[in-house]
Request: fold
Amino acid sequence: MVAVTHSISQSASASSALELLCEGLLPDDARRVAEAHAWTQPLYGERTLGTREPIWQHALGSALIVSSLRLDADARIAALCFAVGDVLSHPEEEITARYGQSVARLVDGLRRLNGLRVITRMTSIASAPEIRAQSEVLRKMLLAMVEDIRVVLLRVASRTQTLRFFTDHPGSVRDAIARESLDIYAPLANRLGLWQLKWEVEDLSFRFLEPETYKRIARMLDERRIEREQFIVDAVARLKAEVAAIGIKAEVYGRPKHIYSIYNKMRAKRLDFSQIFDVRALRVLVDEVKDCYAVLGIVHQMWTPIPKEFDDYISMPKGNNYQSLHTAVYAADGRASKCSGRASSSCSTSAGEKRQRRSAAVAHCTSSWAAGPCVSRSLVGTPSRAKLPRSTSAMATAPWRSSTSAISRSPASRASRRSARA
Reply:
């Protein structure tokens, strides 16, 4: 899987942008990327795309996203050269002469994928079941028609950059592109393991299509995504230290839940915002089942358990044999956290052959605002830069049921329900 490992500042200076473009490359590859950067900028000049975004701005933004995915020099150069065909009469020959056949094929693949835009526009006038069927077909077409998967990665990066541009420059085609992004590119990014891009595409598209609902949920969160990410970083570090202190080997992960995902969960399960405990999440993988319960004890010592929010799927597995521990706690910063646990253990068969069995446990701590007392049982405070809640009682009396009704009446919600019934 591919994951975005760092974020890019869209206001980066030319020198810092070039440094980010060349990050992680060998000197010869970095030189090629720098040459492409120097060649394409004056070549594009003041030309713009149909979205009114300057071509150079789009090329640079897409290339920075590609760089953040740790793709190779050819992919980064192809992102910079994506619109050379709009300027030169024989772009393939020029690109091949400068950067090689591999880059030329990537740019040509991008050009052919852009031809699908005519087909994808059909989804904006189709019914929900038709949209669902067409979107799946188009995703498969995107994956099947390319010889190099990097072409699809470049296309997803390009779409992410387009949505970023629309944040400050709304246009007449913004809503159509946002709908197409939700239907096609977000699921495609998910399938390719581009989690960070998937979240960004979904949140930006949702923000454009349902601005009032987006703002309402954002106000409920009462913290920026960067603050949630910092909470994850701090919580992961602290939990790692606590687990290591008692001699348990564990892998600890984390992620903040994004706004579109919160919206989907509230709508699908008919939950109030105060019932969403997985706005932020930690995941811990341990070796043995007994370690799961030990980690659970650590979590309960670090934070205060929430009543009626504990499930033991180890002793009572789900029907699909899913085995895990789930609990919810109040973190020290006033946010509720839901925790689950999974362990990886090995055993031998009667024939003496060893196999790995995945059973039970991941300490999966997730966090959100919740009304009620917040008392930490930890002997040391949880380091966090997240803001403290202005009022926990305000959440208890927040008129979210009426907000939930408003969400259920939104066009996106109606289309989703029709799709679900189909």
Notes: The first strand starts at residue 250 and ends at 256.
